[in-house]
Design brief:
Elements: H1 3-18, E1 27-33, E2 38-41, E3 57-60, E4 65-67, H2 76-85, E5 91-95, H3 98-105, H4 115-118, H5 133-137, H6 140-151, E6 162-164, E7 170-174, H7 177-200, H8 209-220
């Protein structure tokens, strides 16, 4: 019944490795079937070189295993909290790509310096607050999700499909598992260019609102005209 979902999540995890955004088992991608409330996610600690579609674990929104003989990712509670609160998203990706992770470890949001970032992210990529000792010691992964949800209060997660968890690493998402990985790929490129920008000019300010709107809305707005029209 869930073969298509499991295969899509497997393919997305493989793409994450192909893009050289993970090493060993340092990352995970999930996808959700909203109609059934079923999430497919990478198993915990399994190397990408050993991953196969049948090893992808299926859980419900409470984290109960539906299908699979392996433990789901240790980050599953974070994914579930995001799915429970962001009903528009269909896939989530977590990884530790070098440059985006450096911004997260520095507890710095990534400013939207130019049009490359604006094509995907509607403004600066946010960073969460630093988690408290109590949040870390009790239900750490669940509290990571709650920390992200708090940061997105009043924000549309589909206009900003990425977040930097302070002292940790990024999470990204999209309308599918594949789209979540695409967001991670673009996030890492954006983080790299932003780092180079402030190296060249430490005083550089963010892109103008007019240019941000133009580049974001021409791809994602109600009157978007980027790409080919569907027949």
């Amino acid at each position: 019944m869930y073969e298509e979902l499991r295969k899509a999540v497997y393919d997305a995890n493989v793409e994450l490795q192909k893009r050289e955004l993970v090493i060993y088992s340092w990352g995970n991608v999930s996808g959700i079937d909203h109609s059934r409330g079923v999430i497919a996610i990478k198993p915990s600690g399994v190397s990408y070189d050993e991953l196969t579609p049948d090893k992808i674990v299926l859980v419900d929104l409470d984290g109960n295993i539906i299908e699979g003989t392996l433990k789901p990712s240790s980050d599953t509670p974070t994914h579930l909290e995001l799915y429970r609160n962001f009903e528009s998203i269909g896939g989530i990706c977590h990884a530790h790509p070098t440059n985006a992770t450096m911004w997260a470890q520095a507890c710095r949001e990534i400013p939207c310096f130019g049009t490359t970032s604006a094509d995907y992210f509607y403004g600066s990529i946010p960073v969460t607050e630093v988690m408290t000792e109590d949040e870390i010691r009790s239900d750490y992964e669940l509290n990571t999700g709650k920390c992200i949800v708090r940061r997105f209060g009043g924000m549309d997660p589909m206009k900003m499909p990425a977040v930097l968890v302070a002292n940790h690493a990024p999470f990204t998402w999209g309308n599918s598992a594949a789209a979540a990985v695409e967001s991670m790929v673009v996030l890492e490129r954006t983080a790299t260019m932003a780092l180079g920008t402030i190296t060249i000019n430490p005083e550089q300010g963010p892109i103008s609102k007019a240019l941000l709107d133009k580049h974001y809305l021409r791809k994602h707005g109600k009157d978007a005209y980027y790409g080919q029209l569907e027949s």
